[in-house]
Structure of Putative transcriptional regulator:
Amino acid sequence: MGGQSLRGKLLIAAPVLQDYFRRSVVLVVEHGAEGALGVILNRPSDVRVADAVPALAELGFGDEQLFIGGPVQPTAVIALGEFGDPEEASSIVVGTLGVLDPERPPTSLARIRVYAGYAGWAPGQLERELEQEAWIVEAASPEDPFLDGDLWRVVLRRKGGPYALLATMPSDPALN
């Protein structure tokens, strides 16, 4: 990737990844010389936002499902929202999708996804994993965090070509 930032891109777990990230889709929120940070978009929990982050319930999103963003700092919360006014976001990731600033409650938030924990990479680590073909990179859409269904399959189909065929792979290879 030659020093190019992957911020706003999706990392789709390649079939070789059979660890924690198996069949995950990660949205890269930050990426630079210090490393990278992202959230797994397709790992819902059984917890409601109101039970985990009462402050976000006050914004009217308490009944939303909490998602598991990754293995790093599971008590840390990252909230992604669709902003009517991008100036209200802590940072914009892609399109109107940005990171919620906990110090400034937004007034233009259309919808939100809240993640407990995140995925993190040390400097150069993500680049090495990409060289090992552990991840398939795809452009993110502001809609991706809010899509229902098997996001891993959806984004592989969207990427097209041989990736669309990969999307047909059963989640349990023994069923193949």
Q: What stands out?
A: The beta strands are 9-13, 25-32, 35-40, 44-48, 65-68, 72-83, 89-94, 97-100, 109-121, 135-139. The chain has five helices and ten strands. The first helix runs from residue 49 to 52.
